[in-house]
Specification:
This protein is mainly β. The protein is built from 13 helices and 64 strands. The N and C termini lie far apart (183 Å).
Amino acid sequence: MNKKFLNVILFSALMVGSAGTFVSCKDYDDDINGLQEQIDANKKQIDDILAAINGKKFIESYTPVEGGYLLTFAGGETLTIKNGAQGAQGEKGDQGLQGIQGPKGETGATIVPKFKVDAENYWMISVDEGETYEYVLNDAGQKIKAKGADGTNVDVEEVVGNYVKVDEEGYICIGEYRTSFKYNVNIPSMIYNEKDGTMQVTIDGQSYTLLMEGSAFNGLQTIVYRKQAADDARDYAVAYQLYYPQDRTDTDTLFAAVPAKASFKVYPSKFSKSDAELFFSETYQTRAAELPKLSVLDWDFDKEQEGVIWVKMAPENLVPNYDYATSLDVKMYGQYVSASDYFNVKSERVSTRDIHNVRVNAEKEIKISFFQNSQATHNVGSFDYKATYNLNDSINAALGNNLNVLLADADIQYEQKFELIDENADMDLWGVTIKKGIFDAEKVAKEGILAVKEELQPSAIDEYAVVKVTTTVKSQVKDVHDLVIYNYVLVQAKRPEVEQSVETIQLSPLGDATFNLGYKTSTQIVKLDVRAFETAIGGRDILTRDFGSSIVWPLYKAQYNESKELTGYEQAFNSIENYPAVTRWSVDVPVNADEAFVWFKKAQGNATDSLFLFIGPKTKVEKNTFYLMWRNVRHNGIYTPYAVENRIDNKFFITTINDLAVTRSFDATVKEEYSAQTIIGKWNADKTKYTLESNSFSDMYIIKPADAVAKYNLDANKQNAYVKELMNKGQLTFNNNTYTVKFEPSVDVAKVKELKIDIYDTEVHKDNFYRTDTWTVKSPLQDFKNTANLGKHYDPTLAKGTVIKFQELAATAWKNLVLKDYIDQTIVSYKNKQLTEAANAAGLYRTKDTSTGLKFTTNTEGWTINENNELVCNIDPTGTVYTKTVTVTVSYKHDWGTTSFNFTIEVIRDVKP
């Protein structure tokens, strides 16, 4: 009998190529449909096949189609089976017969071979739907005789079963024989067993047995190897031989041989164990050696997973560390044989040096491997000081040397015990300080559970326990001692961590204080409610633990994009130049302009802590919300400033000052001495010169705040037409440096009336406009005072041409008449029976030719004023008695207009009574 050995590289490639038929070692679903969730290729049709198996459907007929087969079930349901790719031309049998032709390249035509045994128990095959049969020959050209599993021929009819199959290279095999018939590997193989009434379908290397109509087949229809590793290259069922190495004994000494173990998904999921026989008919090695062999030591149903069996297998003639491929066969009721897909197996020779205590996580993954019998400690974790730490779940033992397999997973028998090292120890011994009497030593020894003694729990926070771990690996060889290894591990009792959370709290001013502040040129201090703040964050110690006696928080503000979406935070004020010392009083803390920050100061003794908001002098703040910055925490997808972290509760406090505003209220008030808001002009010191100009407007206003700068402007567009004309002629100018207005004569102040002066904050700009004030412009001369009418004048000879010297007639009426300026100088007065201009008047107020001084005029009909300022009658009075009231205007025309008054004289042609 010739046995073919598969090349491991080829087999690995086949395994990878057929990954769709494997089940992940972590997938423990309870049914076959769940198993198929891990299949990547041909998943739909495999699901359909399994559904047909689970539904106990019978095939009524089958028809070859392009690239596969069409199965029709009783009841009319159909199922098409394809690999999804057209096959190549099939290979002709080596024995020179017709063989089995694969589908042609273009049409992909397929056939279903049929097998049976003749009367002398020789295998025969039909490739034409049973029309003709030919014998199946071995490599030597000899007919192959059917054999039973026990090596006899007595149960030939029963042996046929599912023992006819297709191997990885596409050859059809009869038991252990590879025939010369090769299948097209691009098309799922189908083999019809007439005896059992079964149709075996092979897709991607995995076989499924469907029942033909009327079949009485009672074997396993599916046996699927369950992967033990996600990576195919590391997926092995491993047997271990544990040795003491030669340097520890005279020779390498075996002390434990551990069989390999594998699990399989089967259907039906329940069957009679007593009627099942398990064996390995094919085990292939990569290189020539003695014939490798696997024997079943034990097997059973998995108690936790329905439809799963486990098998322990003992290797023979397996070269250590070499890779083998094998397949599990199950024969039911002594006649129905089913085979699993191929899987890898190997034997590992392991030195006792490669057995270690290890730290594992909750998934039993090895995280740390400890050196054997080392005095060093390994920090393996921490636990809630009020709870317990299960050493059994954290500490384990494993095979090293790149194997990284837990002893339990390798079925290696061992015991592990824990011992608390309960003694005072300093840093030199364990690397940390150990305090005696905190942990429960008895609970560690009996249960492998580490716990703090209840009465000492508060004092155990952050304390360490040292536990000695001793692992004893049991020898399976008589007179060979057990392997004992030990290590020390550290476990820390800690305050329990809680899930991170973020909370926002608002600082509030104390008492009547407010965040709505007025602008000042000095530092402003707002006292904050420190008790409310300390309560909100969980206690005063939260602050003092992290910050000690003092902490300063700069203030930040939110940033937004054009869509008003929050994008981050930026520093709101200038960086702090002088951080306050804890010994300073708040009033002595130096704060610069455009600085703002919050300062916490721990009090001494039982006094209350302090919390202040400082705002530097001359600092304006637009109303906003400001964030105290210590560090950033990611909150709602944005890194956000927080002020305090409560590490006990794992809580971050975003701390804000809401609606803080420092408003700079600009104001300009006319000083009291200028409250009349009148421009009269200026005289020189000896009162001989006069100019019509204003004082500086900057001197006539009180500006708030004190550091504010007001700017003034004379806007022509706001003035009357006459003023505009003066400005255009240059007779009215505004000095932008001195903020004064000045007139050049001649100007009629009566037409000027007033000026509109604009006031601005800081600069003359529309955004800085404050208001427009009205200033009245007056002549430097006052009105005539003590004027009076001259009463009745009788003249019985009144006639045309009569002259009346009215000034002489005014001696009594005008004796106190006077025209003065606003510095009380007399400009015109009644002297020597006539109105007379003062000697200095012309030099002060009549500097222009047009300023003609005193003038008398009348508009009364029939009367005029002659060159001597006398009243002349220009008409012939009529009537017996002539009476006429004549109105005379007295004018004084000067550089700044005309000052005048009217008087009357009643002229009567008659004798004075």
